[in-house]
Amino acid sequence: MSESGSGKNFVHVCKARVRYGETDQMGVAYYGRYLDWFEMGRTELCRAFGKTYRDWEAEGVMLPVVEANCRYRSPLFYDDVICVETTVTALTTVSVTFQCRVTRESDGRLAAEGWTRHAFVNPQGKLLRKGNPLADWLKEQLAYL
Fold first, then answer.
1. pLDDT value, residue 95
2. pLDDT on residue 131
């Protein structure tokens, strides 16, 4: 794990290897896997802040994806080591947006970049507008960086 920046510029980096099952017959990483890697990045960023998704759910806060974007730049191949860079780019009382960049470790080439936006909802799926412990906690974490 490496981290840099401050506040909204805090970037968390985690690494993974493209597995055989994540590729097509030509050994190229399947496009849908990038969103899985975005999830890995935001999960590890939150863990680096000291709380997991499981912790948030135990507090009654769920984070469904309400919007996602991915721009593919260059292919990844079986056995490439990837770096997933994740940062928080927007935080409101009702949502959080995570920006992600996936690069190949060997040459630093950008493979994809994008973002996911998540609503803060209770276990019944109702939007949390006030008294949201997760939004307050994230805001506090970003302020400390």
1. 94
2. 75
CA 88 remoteness from chain centre: 8
Q: What is the rounded end-to-end Cα distance, in angstroms, of the chain?
A: 16
As a whole number of angstroms, the distance between CA 88 and CA 46 comes to 10
The conformational region for residue 54 under phi > 0 = left, psi -120 to 50 = alpha, else beta, is alpha
With respect to residue 84, please indicate whether it lies within any of the assigned structural domains: yes
Averaged pLDDT in 10-residue chunks for the chain of 145 residues: 49 96 94 97 92 89 96 97 96 94 98 97 92 84 71
> How many domains, in total, are found in the chain?
1
pTM above 0.90, yes or no: no
Name the nearest CA neighbour of 61 among 140, 143, 145, 138.
138
Q: Which two tokens stand for residue 120?
A: 């803060």
CA distances from 94 to 114, 115, 142 (A): 20, 17, 16
Which residue segment(s) compose the domain that 7 sits in? 2-134
